[in-house]
Amino acid sequence: MMASGYNAKEEDGHHSGAPGNGGAGAVKSKKPDNTAFKQQRLPAWQPILTAGTVLPAFFVIGLIFIPIGIGLFVTSNNIKEFEIDYTGIEASSPCYNCAQNYSWNSTSSCTCKVPFTLEQPFESNVFMYYGLSNFYQNHRRYVKSRDDSQLNGDLTSLKSPSKECDPYRTSDGLPIAPCGAIANSLFNDTLELYHLSNGTRTAVVLMKKGIAWWTDKHVKFRNPGGNDNLTLAFQGTSKPVNWKTPVFELDPNDPDNNGFINEDFIVWMRTAALPTFRKLYRIIQKKVDAPTLASGKYELEVSYNYPVRSFDGRKRVILSTISWMGGKNPFLGIAYITVGSVCFFLAVVLLIIHHKYDNRCSSADIPN
Amino acid sequence: MSQRQRADSTGSLGPDDEVMPYSDDETDDELDASSEGEPEEPPEHQPGAQPPVDTRASDLGWSVKSNDRAYHQLPEFQRKVFLFIKKSKYSGNGIKTYKYNALTFIPLNLFEQFKRVANLYFLGLLILQIIPAITTLPWYTTLVPLVLVLTITAVKDLADDLARHRMDKEINNRKTEVLLDGGFQETKWMDMQVGDVVRLKKNDFVPADILMLSSSNPNSLCYVETAELDGETNLKFKFALKITDEKLQQEHQLAQFEAMIDCEEPNNRLDKFTGTMQWSRHSYPVDLDNILLRGCKIRNTDVCHGLVIFAGADTKIMRNGGKTRFKRTTIDILMNYMVYAIFALLILVALGLAIGHGFWYKHIGSLAWYLYDGKTYGSLYRGFLSFWGYIIVLNTMVPISLYVSVEIIRLGQSKFINWDLQMYYAEKDTPAKARTTTLNEQLGQIEYIFTDKTGTLTQNIMAFKKCNIGGKTYGNPMTAKGVPLDRGKPVDFGWNPYADPKFEFMDHSLVACIRSQQDQETLEFFKLLSLCHTVMVEHKEGELVYQAASPDEGALVTAARNFGFVFLNRTQDTITIKELDHEATYQVLALLDFNSDRKRMSVILKFPDGRIRLYCKGADTVIYERLSPHSLHQETTQTSLDIFANETLRTLCLCYKDISQAEWDAWSRKHTAASIATRDRDAALDQVYEQIENDLLMIGASAIEDKLQDGVPEAIANLAKADIKIWVLTGDKKETAENIGFSCQLLTDNMKIHYGEDVNEKLRVRQALRRNVAPTFGNKKKPAEPFFPEAGKNALVITGGWLNEILYEKKKKRRRLRLRRLGRRTLPASPTDGQPINDFEKEMRQVDFVDMACECEAVICCRVTPKQKANVVSLVKKYKKAVTLSIGDGANDVNMIKTADIGVGISGQEGMQAVMSSDYAFAQFRYLERLLLVHGRWSYIRMCKFLRYFFFKNFAFTLVHFWFSFFNGFSAQVAYEDWFITLYNVCYSSFPVLLVGLMDQDVNDKLSLKFPKLYIPGQKGELFNFKKFFISLFHGIFVSLIIFFIPYGAFLQTMGQDGEAPSDYQSFAVVTASSLIITVNLQISLETSYWTFVNCFAVLCSMAIYFGIMFDIHSAGIHVIFPAYFTFTGTASNALRQPYLWLTIILTVGISLLPVICLQFLSATIWPSVGDKVQRNRKKYEMEAEEEKRPPTFQRGGGSRRSGYAFSHSRGYADLISSGRSIRRRPTVAGGARNSIREGENI
After folding, report:
1. Taking CB atoms and an 8 Å cutoff, what residues of chain B touch A329?
2. Is-catalytic flag, B452?
3. Under DSSP, is residue B308 helix (H, G, I), strand (E, B) or coil?
């Protein structure tokens, strides 16, 4: 029970009488106003931490946190997730050769095929991610190295990008579009998924749209000069140094996914918080009758373009289903359960301590 | 001088006890400057020493020529001011206290503000942020708060300066008549110049230091009121030189007056002036009696003329103002140290992270092709850049808004003090006033109070309360028939046309007794009172106005007047009184004046019928020795004297003696001979007086109450319970001071009172002891044994003369002076064991003295000079490191008010000097209780809470960057959005804590007053110190850790509920920021103990504003307009619609808060403080407080036998009355008499 109460409006101090000079209002008195605010007696609630409030609070928090934790944990465990590392560090890895031979200058792409088996079928929509490790997308200089005006379709910025983009601002005297280190380091591996069943190799249909935030696609990123003719719009600009194709050829088949509003590009441009991160790559739409991905053998075909060995990075592909709370992550569930249990435990300890020491406080003799 | 000699010869306490040892009123600053040029030392107390003021030619560097303005502009008086600009050394009479004018305000104010380290730091930071290589935060993150801070401070300074402008203007434009072009013309004060002849009228303020030339009074006397200077309300008189009095009465004479005054340079000594006047080839000495000082008020004098000697800044009062010391609170000092500690921490952390970046770059960063920035810097240089980058990122650890928030809180506290109705004194319409807004929380830490007596503890009103006539005591409430009454009804003096309506007396029987004219002794009693005094009378519009040298005497004569014996008139040798129904004129044969050794005064009168009678009044101790063995009523009078003394009334014995003509003739011859003696005339006179004042017959005793201010004993008792020590420092005499000590319960009968010799003995023993064990230097920390091992309370009553020994040579600055003196003179010869022989021992003796004094419950220092008052305060400040408060009402308290950590002035009185130099001013001493126990305590608690929380909140905020660094390659990437960093301190987190700083109350004012023990944590500085600071620091670190790592765990490998960009930087920033805002706002809610709707509103508003602003900044619209500045488009809406992130936020907040709640609860349960206990049982106590009234008034008396004599009386005007001014012409004699009147021994 909170020890609380409202301060009754106290009677005035003992000098309530007006100074005896002159009639009412004749002489301006310096007497301060008798208002609750000025006399510092605004009605107030004065809570203090007592056993009556703290102990139940801890019990209740424990009671609430533990079920949440269990719920989270169970949900997280029900999510199916499959992860393959295709960096090609070990010699046994199918992509070993690609990883060894890769250089930015090579014109032909290196392709490698990574087989894997799903033990369980994946129901509902399956999301396909690529994951990078030891990749500092949150480095200060890297994060800054972009021009949001340019990406928003601003024509002046298109021709003269922001200084922040250095050293990826211009190349051969032409402004780079999109400028900056983030755009320059766009993830350019192509991943394709094949289902191997009974010797046949069927491609799994991967949706490449709907992977970016709506706001990003429709507000933050806009092609310059409308979407009519991108080649024209980007005339007079140069492609980023590391890119093989200019920006207006990112997805030549779909004008709604080309240029700055290419969703792969948008996803990449939304920088990650931590050096190990995943980015959504494709969505596998659920099927009506069968599991989206039936259990069985699969093959991942990678066109290996993106070098990570130089900085000890790793590349992964993750297939995952999704629940109301997102992907698989047991951390939060465990944390909730732990905190809830600690609360319970503390409540018991505090109860004991309270019983032992309570008389100290209620023995209200204050030496005076 | 002769007076001093006498005091020594009577062998009282070692050094002279009665006379103020010296009264140089130099402030310390000036001591510094003048110690070289002024080899003059405080006068010694050697018998027959030369007067301290010796007029050497070198002193007289100031010459003033009358009626000649051009003279003072002559080149030889020019002084170089700046480069080639020269100015006359004579100041004009205008004063300037303001700092800025319209042009200089902005540059000067900015300059002043950037003198503050914090502001300069942020300016430096701003410059760093502009350098592209290291800028990690955009410029606006620093500029916005800095501009806000500078503006708020500038506005406050502007308001202050405008007030000063107004004050100056008001004073400078006052008008006085100045003799210009042969006639008097109205002139503004600011246009007056040195050498001008001025005419002052009755009730004018004296505009400058002026040499008096003549006045409309006979002998060119002039009465002045010096309340502005020293707070004394009784009048002083000044007079013109005889020659100017005779020759300069008319305007044309004044116009032709051409004289040259040579005198000392301007200085601050109010009690000293030497000079000579050269006029028509004659030279006349001029001293302080001829000088009207600026700030005095002309009284009872229609017109007076004078010559301006010092103007404006040269006047003594202006010189006395001294530099106002810049006072800082302990919290301020502590806070600065903490800011330095944070600086150090900041540099350390930045250094560590910079090194981290260097290594990271070498091993990882340089290999990452995607981070290529086209520059070829090495890892070392990159580390260096990163260092500055981190200095910028982590700058919020040093809270920019700290200083300005502290200022705002203090301003608010001051306002609350100004608004407090219970510190408003209705009678004088005086509210309390906090004159400084920087010291409030120090009010909660006071350990020592130094208080003046007159006008502070007492009202300086003497009331005739009781009397004993012929063995019968009058004064208790009584009806005319002698039946005791419970409650007094004042006697109606309507029958007496001369009665003073303000006089109150409760005993009707005394009036009945007088009116019946039955009891001869009663009539004699009042006749004595109306005849034996030195009061001057003035008839003003048909009213009698008495001018008494002391309020005691005024009270006695007024009492006689009301009882029908009205003192009407006096001439040089007669006194006319009205005895009930007829007037009678008595011839005054001799007036044997009062002085502090004689402790009595007598008058020898020749009655109209030829009888000669001596009337005498004086201290009981003195009178009883001289009573005739046949005198009646000795026993009964003694009994009632004891009763009076126990009631702390001030008593005087009244007696008479009939003298035969022959006896008179014989004595008269001796008297005449003595009064023209050239050597030791005072001593000779005293001896002659002694011969006639014997065989006295007792009439009775009077008892005067030195009225205490209301509630003083209660306030003192309550303050004492709060462990505050109270020292009374007074210029008054020992008896008076002790008397007041008893009446205000500072001294009680169960205390052992120690006097000077006693203390000396103890100090000597301690000193000798130390000398014996001196070689062992190792154990410094040995706790000193108490000086008073015996159980029981002790009190110390010491005098200024004695104190001088302790304070003597206190300052190192004076050492050089002393050395010089040593060459001239041998040391005072008393090398007895225990006398200090070198500086170290002197200092140790000071330490001993302070230790001893602090063991006592009460300390009373009497007969101390203003300088000594200040020295005592600084002694305690220095050796006890304690927070001190001085309270006083007069100019003699100014020095101590300025010296103490907090100075309080009693306002609403005549004098304004104390108030002008004080930090707080109110009308009654008892308000001090409320100021300290309520406002001080609240302010302290609020400020501590505020600071603790403020440091916490910035640590929790900033250190998240630190943890984030480990995951972003130490690249100085921030963990939040830039706009959030900009607005965090300004908008999102400061209002609730500001409100706590302004309005929080752990217990209400009534309980604060009821439990003075609640004050003690403040004195010990328990609520904010380095320990608390580090706790705040660790709390901040803990919370930042949680705020970073819980979202980190949650973000490590998850994705959103719709699978989209799951763990991007921007969502992460939003989650940490939201967790932080909710955590700090809930944390302040936990700290708030007084929840008003405003607090509630502020907490909710802060969070609402945060979310509101965030959603705005993240909205599509603003991105389209400024795509480069608002880059978080859509983050808030995308992130915060995920239940998973909300669960993360809730968990983060929960883990941040739960341990705090747990610890708070545990500490309140296991180690409850007094405050906790009171809070727990608040309701009960409030109920109790409601029921019980104020505790019953203190009982007085306990049966001790001590003399109640205390007559705050100086030598009266007897010389003036009986001998005109002839005596005063002789300088040797004048010394003693003048001093006593001027210094007014009843300060």
Report:
1. 1050, 1052-1054
2. yes
3. strand
State the average pLDDT over residues B1180-1204.
58
CB B1202 within 8 A of CB B743: no
Q: Which residues of B touch A149 (CB under 8 A)?
A: 1123-1124
pLDDT for residue B1217: 60
Q: What is the DSSP string of B652-684?
A: EEEEEEEE-HHHHHHHHHHHHHHHT-SSSHHHH
A36 touches chain B (CB under 8 A): no
What average pLDDT is seen over chain B? 79
Relative to beta strand B543-547, strand B793-799 is unpaired
**Pick from B701, B575, B574, B587: nearest CA to B635:** B701
Strand order in the sheet with A314-320: A81-85, A314-320, A126-133, A277-284
The B residues from 1038 to 1067 touching A (CB cutoff 8 Å) are 1046, 1048-1067
Structure tokens at B552: 């005691």
| CA–CA dist B961, B973 (Å, integer) | 7
Q: Is residue B216 over pLDDT 50?
A: yes
State the sign of the Cα–Cα–Cα–Cα dihedral B570, B573, B578, B582.
negative
B1068 touches chain A (CB under 8 A): yes
B461 in A contact zone (CB under 8 Å): no
Chain B residue nearest residue A330, CA to CA: B1050
Q: What integer pLDDT is reported at residue B1061 of this predicted model?
A: 57
Angle subtended by helix axes B681-692 and B2-9, to nearest 10: 60
B575-631, pLDDT tens digit by residue? 888 888 888 889 888 888 877 778 888 899 998 888 899 999 988 888 888 888 888
The beta-strand segments (E) located in B167-256 are: 175-180, 183-188, 197-201, 209-215, 221-225, 236-239
Q: State which H helix or E strand residue B539 sits in.
A: strand B536-540
Which tokens hold the place of B942? 């609020």
Q: What is the three-class DSSP state of A132?
A: strand
Interatomic CA distance for residues B178 and B195, integer angstroms = 10
Give me the DSSP letters along B814-864.
GHHHHHHHHHHSPPPS---TTS--SHHHHHHHHHHHHHHHHHSSEEEEES-
Whole-angstrom CA distances from A28 to A18, A20, B479, B899 are 11, 12, 43, 35
Query: Which chain A residues are closer than 8 Å to B1116 by Cβ?
Result: 215, 219
DSSP string, B1033-1079: HHHHHHHHHHHHHHHHHHHSS---TT-SS-SBHHHHHHHHHHHHHHH
ipTM of the complex: 0.91
Q: What does the alpha-carbon distance between residue B302 and residue B628 come to, in Å, rounded to a whole number? A: 49
Q: Which of A31, A32, A274 sits opposite B1063 (nearest CB)?
A: A274
**pLDDT tens sequence across B369-381:** 888 887 888 888 9
Is B1093 in Cβ contact with A42 (below 8 Å)?
yes
* DSSP string for B992-1015: HHHHHHHH--SS-HHHHHH-GGGG
Those residues with Cβ within 8 angstroms of residue B330's Cβ, 6 or more apart along the chain or in another chain: B442, B445, B883, B1021
Q: Measured between alpha carbons, how far is B564 from B558 in angstroms, rounded to an integer? A: 10
Where are any strands of DSSP class E within B120-182? 175-180
Q: Tell whether the model's pLDDT for residue B28 goes beyond 60.
A: no
Q: Nearest-CA neighbor of B843 among B812, B814, B813, B819?
A: B812
B residues 374-393 lying closer than 8 A (beta carbon) to A: 374, 389
Residues 6+ apart with CB under 8 A from A280: A127, A128, A129, A211, A267, B1055, B1059, B1060, B1061, B1062
B1195: its two tokens? 């009982």
Higher local confidence (pLDDT), B663 or B229? B663
SS3 content of chain A, % helix, strand, coil (to 5): 30, 20, 50
- pLDDT score for B1224: 32
| CB neighbours of residue B815 within 10 Å | 12
C-alpha–C-alpha distance, residues A264 and A306, integer Å: 14
Size of chain B, expressed as the number of residues it contains: 1243
